[in-house]
Recover the amino acids of this structure.
């Protein structure tokens, strides 16, 4: 039986007259005088007259959209009588990054005051998936979680507890790089990661991490520096409206905009060229473009020689890079090249050497080839005619697309998650896009690069060690895609899913459910009763981003403070408070004794600029990363 206490009505009726007064006074699109969400149509039904608010009771507070849509838009919340009544775009204090908002940002009031929000801690009494819930107190919930986890640790070890990575929030303390990882580290549990293997969307991140070391892309206002932009499987005009303006600005500056997608979408309708292809053949198209570029000498020879592994020699017996120790028996791990000056194999950093980009060379009886030679041999299998039969893209189109990409310098690729990540071997497709860009010298230059995640997670700029792994305590890493396997092997016995609809994110839903059903204990903290929450033993109501203090890193290169704007509704608590309470009960409270401001300053302390939270607050709650 569903617990009716979690379904109570939220919205007292107000008059149409009051609604209009509130809308005018606050500039609000939603008038919620002493009201928490609910059906807005009810707000217009007859009721007794209410007095209109005075301007002095209206407060505007800057925050940011931390939900995982990658936009990271600044939001201005209008608050009346302790309730948010409107969201509008907030300034970034930067003329090159104008205020922006989309319908998702405007509709955050519906999210905040939704009647279906989880309201109280609850335990499932009829077995996982039964939908039979019983309300309990927070004291009961914390004691139950702490005792269950301690029991499992004593029987199976701390690594048998899995803290899943966040996917619904990009903030520091309560999100993607949040307190769940800190909790996992201090108790010695296992956890996923927040970048290279992000659950069902893992192909693109994994490919980027393997190729570049991080899944960090360009801030999208950098597109105005591009002479050509390929939106590769990225329906930006429909799914990322605020950032589409940068693409259109680039076109106004003379850039050519190309869209690669099997479907004719709103983006296809506004670009210069739409290139439809057979679904899942993106890798073949990228390899064929490289074929044209290499065989016609359109690549940037100086760039690939000096900034890529192209001249490094690869052993043909092991397919590993040749190291100096393979040549002279030393312990040196230096990569080797064929020097065209001395006509010999030497370490890559030998002064005065000029590496060969192509060729095969025997070294101590070991056959080697340059990495560039191996790439050339690979792409020779994908001439435009052959690739056309695979992709359905005309050979002439492949040729002209490659020529444009190589000659319109610099050119950028904005790749979507869905078009690439949701295909088997999508990581290799993403690596092909990076290699294509590197061939032309576009990685690491303004107006170039391959970007999926807008901007960066900024973990590349900020050292998170002291926050995520205090006192050198380090959680045990288990890739999210390996979760089910590890459960079936008996290595995971309990799981905690904080704001992570894990079941929906994984590629095989039924297999994931089967794995969760085998666990001894399952915890979910979330804002809503998600499919994953339905299979939990205990669910905890999580405070929204507007009910807790945090800092947003990512989606652009700004540091955005997100203050606590309103009090948590019902009995919701922040992730940090929840993990801190359980840690305290388990004897690890000292690792969660700080305030949100102190932890934010801990994260910021590694910036060379010396930026502190007080500086961000003094600058209106937003500051461009200086480093």
């Amino acid at each position: 039986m569903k617990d009716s206490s979690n379904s109570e009505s939220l919205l007292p009726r107000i008059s149409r007259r009051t609604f209009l007064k509130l809308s005018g006074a606050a500039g609000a699109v939603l008038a919620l005088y002493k009201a928490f969400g609910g059906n807005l149509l009810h707000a217009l039904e007859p009721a007794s007259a209410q007095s209109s608010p005075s301007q002095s009771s209206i407060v505007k507070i800057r925050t940011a959209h931390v939900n995982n849509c990658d936009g990271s838009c600044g939001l201005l919340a209008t608050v009346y009588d302790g309730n948010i009544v409107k969201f509008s775009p907030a300034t970034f204090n930067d003329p090159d990054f104008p205020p922006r908002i989309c319908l998702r940002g405007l509709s955050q009031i519906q999210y905040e005051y939704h009647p279906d929000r989880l309201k109280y801690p609850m335990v499932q009494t009829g077995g996982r998936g039964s939908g039979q819930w019983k309300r309990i107190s927070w004291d009961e919930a914390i004691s139950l979680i702490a005792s269950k986890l301690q029991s499992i640790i004593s029987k199976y070890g701390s690594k048998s507890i899995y803290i899943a990575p966040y996917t619904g929030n990009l903030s520091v303390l309560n999100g993607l790089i949040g307190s769940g990882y800190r909790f996992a580290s201090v108790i010695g549990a296992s956890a996923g990661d927040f970048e290279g293997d992000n659950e069902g969307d893992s192909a693109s991140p994994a490919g980027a991490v393997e190729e570049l070391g991080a899944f960090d892309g360009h801030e999208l206002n950098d597109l105005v520096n591009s002479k050509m932009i390929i939106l590769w499987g990225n329906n930006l005009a429909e799914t990322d409206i605020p950032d589409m303006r940068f693409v259109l600005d680039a076109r106004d500056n003379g850039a050519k905009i190309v869209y690669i997608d099997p479907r004719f979408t709103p983006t296809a309708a506004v670009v210069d060229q739409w290139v439809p292809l057979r679904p899942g053949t993106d890798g073949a198209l990228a390899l064929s473009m490289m074929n044209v570029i290499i065989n016609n000498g359109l690549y940037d020879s100086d760039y690939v020689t000096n900034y890529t592994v192209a001249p490094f020699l690869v052993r043909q017996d092991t397919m590993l890079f040749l190291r100096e120790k393979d040549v002279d028996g030393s312990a040196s791990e230096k990569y080797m090249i064929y020097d065209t000056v001395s006509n010999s194999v030497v370490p890559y950093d030998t002064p005065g050497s000029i590496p060969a980009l192509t060729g095969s060379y025997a070294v101590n009886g070991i056959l080697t080839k340059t990495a560039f030679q191996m790439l050339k041999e690979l792409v020779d299998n994908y001439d435009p005619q052959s690739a056309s039969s695979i992709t359905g893209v005309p050979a002439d189109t492949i040729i002209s697309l490659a020529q444009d990409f190589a000659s319109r310098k610099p050119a950028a690729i904005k790749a979507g998650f869905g078009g690439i990540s949701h295909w088997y071997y999508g990581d290799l497709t993403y690596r092909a896009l990076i290699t294509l860009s590197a061939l032309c010298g576009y990685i690491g230059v303004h107006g170039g690069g391959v970007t999926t995640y807008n901007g960066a997670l900024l973990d590349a700029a900020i050292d998170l060690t002291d926050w995520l792994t205090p006192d050198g305590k380090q959680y045990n890493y288990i890739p999210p895609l390996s979760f089910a396997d590890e459960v079936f092997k008996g290595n995971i016995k309990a799981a905690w899913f904080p704001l992570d609809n894990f079941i929906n994110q994984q590629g095989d839903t039924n297999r994931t459910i089967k794995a969760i059903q085998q666990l001894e204990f399952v915890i979910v903290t979330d804002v809503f009763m998600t499919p994953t929450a339905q299979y939990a033993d205990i669910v905890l109501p999580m405070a929204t981003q507007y009910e807790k203090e945090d800092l947003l890193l990512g989606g652009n290169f700004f540091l955005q403070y997100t203050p606590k704007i309103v009090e948590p509704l019902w009995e919701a608590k922040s992730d940090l408070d929840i993990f801190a309470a359980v840690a305290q009960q388990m004897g690890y409270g000292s690792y969660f004794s700080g305030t949100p401001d102190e932890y934010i300053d801990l994260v910021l302390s590694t910036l060379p600029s010396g930026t502190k939270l007080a500086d961000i607050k003094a600058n209106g709650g937003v500051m461009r990363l200086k480093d």
The longest helix spans residues 138-156. The radius of gyration is 27 Å. Residues 1-52 have pLDDT under 50 and may be disordered.
